[in-house]
Amino acid sequence: MLSPSTEQFDRGKKFQFYRRLTSLREYLLVSQDTPRIEHYVHQENDQWLFSDAVGLDAKLTLPALNCELALTDVYRRVSFEPETGE
After folding, report:
1. pTM score, two decimals?
2. Which pLDDT value is given to residue 10?
3. Which pLDDT does position 35 carry in this prediction?
4. SS3 of residue 2 by DSSP
5. How far apart are CA 17 and CA 31, in angstroms?
6. DSSP classification of residue 66
7. What is the structure's pLDDT at 83?
């Protein structure tokens, strides 16, 4: 889960380090304050393909695990603050 205190590190230095691991195929960043998961998939050309799933109805396909991940399952016990129109 991304927290305000670690989000910058998780997106920056940590992911930079993880990208050096040849065994790492996918990287997920899970938001803690909104139903959103950012998904990075390592490509054969050494690039990372980004996609994201937003909203409780969204699903992610995880090729490395050959499975589908529903955000409703990830956030089953999480209550979100209602969005304000600010």
Report:
1. 0.80
2. 75
3. 95
4. strand
5. 20
6. T
7. 66
The low-confidence residues of the chain, meaning pLDDT below 50, are none
Give the sheet arrangement for strand 48-54, strand by strand: 26-30, 36-42, 48-54
CA dist., res. 2 & res. 44, Å (int): 27
What's the confidence (pLDDT) of residue 84?
63
- Interstrand relation of 26-30 and 36-42 (parallel, antiparallel or unpaired): antiparallel
The domains of the chain are located at 7-74
How confident is the model at residue 14, as a pLDDT?
Answer: 85
CA nearest to 28, candidates 76, 56, 61: 61
Which amino acid is residue 52, in one-letter code?
Answer: D
**19 C-beta neighbours (distance < 10 Å), count:** 14
**Cβ proximity of 62 and 73 under 8 Å:** no
Please report which helix (H) or strand (E) contains residue 51, including its range. strand 48-54
Which residues, in sequence order, are bridge partners of residue 67?
Answer: 62
